[in-house]
Specification:
- The chain has 398 residues and is mainly α.
- The protein has a single domain (12-397), classed as Growth Hormone, Chain: A.
- Helix content is 79%, strand content 0%.
- It is globular, with a radius of gyration of 20 Å.
- The N and C termini lie far apart (50 Å).
């Protein structure tokens, strides 16, 4: 009797998309969990301001190097294998962070967490683009990115519910990714749509600058850098701004939740517009809104205004990231896509390091927390110009 071919879960594009989405959720979760548990860590480990800064920076530094290495590996080997290994490393490092017994273990584990997450992102974006219905790649990538604010909102809820338990939020962010690493290994075939077998092994130089991609790559890096400066500056300094006007710590958790809710609603609702010829209008709307909302954010004087501004700012900032994440993988050929996306993610991480530092510099020079939000407006304008130019330039290359 002839056996029937296995057409179950392991061959389901829906399963692949669902797993990728959940990993994006835990990217967003991890990006904000450090801020949620920071005050408890200061009390538990008696962290100085300098050591707390290292704790915040360790993940970002790890992510920078992980994105570069992960991008190169997923163009030379199976994207699925790189994704599974990176997610497993990310999850285990989060668990080690949660059970840290001293400052050194805490900071090193946090750095390894970022390294694993950075390694996962190029494979995650490349797989999503290649698994999508032809012509709907940008939509798929934008829907994937809508998982990031869901993760941020989830950790805000957990932080509010477990205000005094710093280990549990980090532990949750580690155990579940370990489970998904197992699911990836077991159910997603390594040769998704046969793309894994076609490799020309482009050099980094050829992938980034070959066939007239030099200007495109530079615009990608500037766009990712600028938008991550804004995102991380807002994530770090908006709670401080709210506290300075008398908002309680508990309410600041909910404001952060609404920041992420606004991001999810806008990312999800605009994803279906990004494959059209007028998708630049979506980008123009998001990038144009940021300076206006930043100005109003500097004028917050009530809880109601804080809620409205947090939602609007989250929507506009996350929309710009969604647009860039949807666009970047489509700018590079499949055999160089991992390198291209990895370089874009890495440039964004430089921005994420610069954002909080810029905030501190603006406060010291301009004298108030609200001045941080005004001071970053020129960067928002530069980001918009670069991103929209990138969209039109990429059309000429097609």
């Amino acid at each position: 009797m002839t056996s029937k071919p296995n057409v179950g879960l392991s061959h389901s594009p829906v399963l692949t998309a669902s797993i990728c989405f959940m990993i994006a959720v835990f990217e967003g979760y991890d990006l904000q969990v450090a801020g949620i548990v920071a005050q408890n860590l200061v009390a538990r480990f008696e962290l100085s301001t300098n050591l707390l800064g290292w704790f915040f920076s360790a993940s970002t530094i790890g992510l920078f190097f992980g994105a570069i290495l992960g991008g190169k590996l997923c163009d030379k080997h199976s994207r699925v294998s790189v994704l599974a290994g990176s997610v497993l490393a990310f999850g285990l490092a989060s668990v080690f962070t949660a059970v840290s017994v001293n400052t050194s273990m805490l900071i090193i584990s946090r750095g390894l967490t970022g390294f694993g997450l950075g390694g996962a992102l190029p494979a995650l974006l490349a797989m999503t683009a290649e698994n999508a219905t032809p012509g709907k790649e940008k939509r798929a990538l934008a829907l994937l990115y809508s998982g990031v604010p869901i993760g941020g909102g989830l950790v805000s809820l957990i932080g509010a519910a477990m205000a005094d338990n710093w280990r549990m939020p980090i532990l949750i962010g580690g155990i579940i990714p370990v489970f998904f690493a197992w699911v990836i290994i077991k159910y997603i075939p390594k040769n998704q749509k046969g793309l894994e077998t076609v490799r020309e092994n482009l050099t980094t130089r050829s992938a980034l600058f070959g066939e007239g991609r030099a200007i495109i790559s530079i615009l990608v890096w500037l766009s990712f850098f600028s938008t991550l400066v804004i995102l991380y500056l807002v994530l770090n300094w908006l709670p401080t701004l709210l506290t300075s006007i008398g908002v309680t710590k508990q309410f600041s958790f909910y404001a952060q939740l609404l920041f992420n809710l606004g991001g999810f609603l806008i990312c999800y609702s605009t994803a279906f517009l990004l494959d059209g010829r007028k998708n630049w209008i979506v980008a123009l709307g998001g990038f144009s809104a940021i300076p206006v909302i930043l100005y109003f954010a500097s004028l917050i004087n009530s809880d109601v205004m804080a809620i409205l501004v947090a939602m609007a700012l989250g929507g506009s900032v996350y929309l710009t990231q969604s647009f860039l994440y949807a666009l970047a993988p489509t700018l590079y050929p499949p055999q160089g896509r991992g390198i291209g996306v990895g370089a874009a993610v890495a440039s964004g991480r430089i921005g994420s390091i610069s954002g909080p530092l810029l905030g501190a510099l603006l406060i010291s020079s301009l004298g108030s927390t609200s001045s941080v939000l005004i001071g970053v407006i020129p960067i928002a304008i530069i980001a918009g110009i670069c991103a929209i130019s990138l969209e039109f330039l990429s059309r000429r290359k097609r």
